[in-house]
Amino acid sequence: MKKSAIILLIPLLLISLTTFASAAFFMEQPISEGGTIGVLTYNMGLSYPVTWGEFIVAIVILLMLGFSFYDIISTLTMFSRLTSGIIAAGLAIIAVITRVVAAFTGWVLIFTAWMGVLSVFGSVVSAFVVWFLIHWGFSGIGKWLYRRKAYMEAFKTGTTITKGGKILKQVGEELK
Fold this sequence. Notes:
By secondary structure, this protein is an all-alpha fold. It contains seven helices and no strands.
């Protein structure tokens, strides 16, 4: 496992060395004005000025991806440990450089937010539709709703169908 950790840390060290050796650590000027893109700006999506917190989070994400990829690849394939480590490190670096994690996370959060909005609006609209159908619409729906509520209550309490009739009568009296 020690060799695996070292193999995963070598690409990180190389990125760090090229970053520190580079005069353009971060993009301080727009490219149109003769500025250059720093290694961290390009590779990790960090923008100038970068706080230590952002930098540490970027490194932690890189390490988490690397170790996760290594575990998956070494467990599910026939590659040697060295090959699994190299592939895992490469995939982690590619995922960070191409900003796949940020894009995927953003897409999932957007999708989840839309589903939440649709479910809230759907439940509000359906409540008004049911109210309209019960009070002004078809009388059969009201009976169906009362019967459904009684069956649900009977199921929750574990009562039989005959006792469910008594519960149905109570529900009908409550709704009057």
